[in-house]
Q: What sequence folds into this?
């Protein structure tokens, strides 16, 4: 066994997660190694070992092919799509944003107004043989921009049932998550195999705003408009967007938002097409998914191992046991001291410990009729804020870090920023400005109880806390929070998951009052956290709205000076703390382990897709090739 402990990951300014960030990057990898390394190949499948397989454990099942929708914007989906689909750029193992010219190229074609043109390579095609085209990117813009949405779902507060389905069916609602595409106000223009996006401002993070289409336009148009021919369907979709035909856009939006959500292999192959190295070939609900090398992939990042099976297990010790038993070859579970100790006791595996780009936090609901919503107190904003502040005073952040994180990382500290990673140049400045490290440094039960009494709020105050119910570390955090909050007059109860916790996070907002989970970054863009906190932002599930925060993020969009970026983020966080939006808790400690007899070439990075980065460099170990 070899154990290595990496230095802290390259500092990224913004960290967002479960998901993914506002602009989900589904692109693939860096300078691929096309040397077959002695792998068995044949003429029709060069570079692919046709009799090797690898099994990987992951904590949460895949549930949505469209990872750029609010529903599907989760790491659990993004890692699968990273294996299946390509993009214009990706992050290499050094967190450097790198073009994939085998998918296409992009460049600034005008400085004022800022105009970016993307051109698809001839080698970019969907697995049904249809070329990836500008229409795919046009659909992505339309879905993410928000300009076409003229209705949104209204849910029954008791059952979660959609109350305005007829209105949704008649109107247009794209379940998009991006904030940056709203800066592309004019309809993009298509010229042959190229598409150009004109920004209304000189957007600083343009290179990570739109990096790949989420779903194939011809499939969406076929299903929405009942047109079988791919070319005809694609043209009809383009016409609907360009001509702003709301009658056609209504079913297009419904298909984009809903049809690609599934938890087992769909009957229609069109719902899981690939334009990358792997094809989805098996998918058994809550058990596993198998991906098989795409023989028709023509890009620069081909699969080197024929089949990859992801097996889902939310129990970290269960993943360790599966690795020890040879059931899986690679794991990266949520780490605990017990997990690390167990891995250190297994002979023949490699273990790597490092910090990750994910941070734990608690967010509060502002508009769900619960204890933190002014509407509960007849619209009294100050009373609702006092209850939020009181609850945050009871969160035992230091105790959580001491008991659950320091056994893995003795140097771990409480994280005190919503937008900035500890150790980055702006972190200390932002923490000093936002006040989290002073106001909520320690549990203040007396102060919390006094706030509730002064506000005239009857106790106990019930708080429904959403978290992953099968996650051991989150269970432990919940219990620590419950015990602490109870002393001040709160009754913290587990939210009862309706579908799965990730889907409920965005779709069942009336049914929980606080959410405990982790945001994982997908890029190093300074504006990445915008969608989490602006009014109506794709990752803002809580009804939080502060016009000053919105204006500051608008300033950040066009700011390229690092000092000014830090100043703006410091102001944003100070306002969020004044509003008692929530608190952050810790940076994830990470541990990755694999069996080198079955797989080598692992190059985990701190942001999504973590352990799957550089899959084209994976090689079978000495025991991986079948006899």
A:
């Amino acid at each position: 066994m070899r154990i290595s402990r990496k230095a802290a990951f390259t500092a990224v300014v913004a960290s967002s997660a479960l998901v993914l960030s506002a602009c989900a990057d589904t692109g693939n990898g860096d300078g691929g190694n096309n040397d077959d390394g002695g792998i068995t190949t044949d003429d029709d499948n060069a570079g692919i070992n046709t009799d090797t397989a690898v099994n990987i454990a992951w904590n949460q099942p895949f549930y949505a092919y469209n990872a750029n929708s609010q529903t599907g914007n989760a790491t659990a989906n993004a890692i699968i799509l990273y294996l299946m689909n390509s993009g214009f750029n990706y992050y290499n193992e050094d967190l450097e944003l790198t073009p994939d010219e085998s998918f296409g190229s992009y460049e600034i074609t005008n400085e004022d107004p800022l105009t970016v043109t993307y051109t698809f390579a001839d080698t970019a095609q969907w697995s049904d043989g249809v070329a990836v085209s500008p229409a795919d990117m046009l659909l992505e813009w339309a879905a993410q921009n928000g300009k076409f949405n003229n209705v949104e779902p209204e849910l029954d507060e008791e059952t979660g049932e959609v109350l305005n389905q007829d209105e949704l069916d008649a109107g247009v609602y794209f379940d998009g998550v991006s904030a940056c595409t709203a800066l592309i106000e004019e309809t993009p223009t298509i010229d042959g195999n190229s598409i150009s996006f004109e920004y209304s401002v000189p957007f600083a993070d343009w290179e990570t705003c739109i990096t790949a289409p989420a779903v194939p336009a011809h499939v969406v148009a076929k299903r929405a408009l009942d047109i079988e021919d791919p070319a005809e369907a694609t043209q009809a979709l383009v016409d609907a967007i360009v001509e702003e035909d709301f009658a056609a856009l209504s079913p297009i939006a419904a298909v984009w938002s809903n049809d690609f959500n599934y938890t087992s292999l769909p009957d229609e192959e069109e719902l899981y097409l690939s334009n990358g190295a792997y094809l989805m070939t098996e998918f058994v609900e809550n058990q596993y998914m198998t991906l098989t090398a795409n023989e028709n992939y023509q890009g620069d990042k081909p699969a080197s191992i024929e089949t990859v099976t992801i097996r889902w297990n939310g129990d970290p010790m269960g993943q360790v046991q599966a690795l020890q038993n040879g059931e899986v070859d690679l794991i990266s579970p949520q780490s605990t001291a017990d997990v690390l100790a167990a891995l250190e006791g297994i002979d023949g595996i490699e273990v790597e410990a490092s910090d990750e780009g994910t941070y734990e936090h608690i967010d509060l609901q502002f508009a769900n009729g619960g204890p933190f919503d002014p509407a509960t107190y007849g619209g009294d904003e100050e009373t609702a804020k006092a209850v939020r502040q009181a609850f945050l005073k009871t969160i035992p952040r230091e105790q959580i870090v001491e008991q659950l994180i320091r056994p893995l990382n003795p140097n771990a500290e409480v994280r005190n920023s919503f937008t900035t990673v500890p150790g980055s140049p702006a972190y200390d400045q932002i923490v000093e400005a936002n006040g989290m490290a002073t106001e909520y440094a320690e549990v203040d039960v007396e102060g919390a109880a006094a706030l509730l009494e002064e506000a005239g709020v009857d106790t106990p105050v019930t708080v429904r806390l959403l978290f992953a119910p099968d996650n051991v570390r989150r269970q432990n955090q919940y219990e620590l929070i419950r015990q602490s909050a109870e002393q001040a007059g709160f009754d913290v109860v587990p939210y009862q998951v309706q579908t799965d916790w990730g889907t409920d996070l965005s779709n069942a907002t009336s049914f929980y009052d606080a959410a405990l989970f982790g945001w994982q970054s997908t890029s190093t863009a300074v504006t990445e956290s915008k969608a989490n906190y602006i009014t109506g932002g794709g990752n803002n599930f809580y009804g939080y709205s502060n016009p000053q925060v919105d204006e500051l993020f608008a300033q950040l969009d066009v700011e390229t000076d690092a000092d000014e970026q830090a100043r703006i983020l410091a102001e944003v966080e100070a306002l969020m703390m004044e509003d008692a939006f929530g608190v952050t808790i810790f940076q994830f400690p990470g541990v990755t382990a694999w069996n080198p007899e079955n797989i080598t070439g692992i190059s985990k990075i701190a942001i999504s897709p973590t352990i799957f980065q550089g899959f084209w460099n994976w090689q079978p170990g000495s025991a991986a090739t079948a006899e």
The first strand starts at residue 2 and ends at 5. The domain at 356-588 is CATH 3.10.105.10 (Dipeptide-binding Protein; domain 3).
